Amino acid sequence: MARYTGAVCKLCRREGVQLFLKGERCYTDKCGVNRRAYAPGEAASRRGSRRPRKMSEYGKQLREKQKLRRIYGVLERQFRFYYKRANSMTGKTGDSLLQLLERRLDTIVHRMGFAPSLPAARQLVLHGHIKVNGRKVDIPSFRCRPGTVVTVKEKSNQLPLVLDGLRLAENRTQPGYLDVDRKKLTGTVVSLPERGDIQVPVEEQLVVELYSK
Predict the structure, then answer these.
(1) Which residues touch 186 (CB under 8 Å, ≥6 apart)?
(2) Do the Cβ atoms of 189 and 148 come closer than 8 Å?
(3) Strand-pair category, 178-181 with 186-189
(4) Distances (CA, A) of 71 to 4, 64, 87, 209
(5) In this structure, what is the dihedral angle of CA atoms 110, 112, 116, 117, given to the nearest 10 degrees?
(6) What is the tens place of the pLDDT at every residue in 42-81?
(7) CA dist., res. 181 & res. 186, Å (int)
(8) Mean of the pLDDT values across residues 182-195?
């Protein structure tokens, strides 16, 4: 399947916020957003006389959609599938959309602290380092439900990605819908994530407005 393989720091700069796609680097002065606080391609226009254009309402909605899509690393077609499913669920569509994205296996692995970033968590899953309910699962989009037990394989517990994830997780707040034992490298999804548990810098209502036109 197609996947973005360019410089991920450009994605953060384009959205104007840290998307934390490079793990530990995002917490240092080397972060692309801190070093260059403008979008890619804006440097040339800044040297000229052109004034920045005022963003339209559609532009704001599009940027929020792109930001959310890039945070979770899903492609447009897959993202539309998530929106359609969320729109058919009870409750607020925006909350349901975030809940579906948050229940992805790669997201759960990252939230549990077993990987320093979402791209790193996707790599761990794809390479078969993660077990779900005692069985190997190598599908990043696998949807976890309450009661799902996620474990790092015993032979993989000393991988650099896993060790980096555990170190960074010490300074992060653990979501309330997860119960994690980082010494045993295992965790359980105890409930469905609520909006207050999902700390992403996105106005999901703008995404709903974009797709509901």
Answers:
(1) 149, 150, 151, 152, 180
(2) yes
(3) antiparallel
(4) 12, 11, 20, 19
(5) 20
(6) 554 454 445 556 778 998 899 899 889 988 989 999 999 9
(7) 5
(8) 94
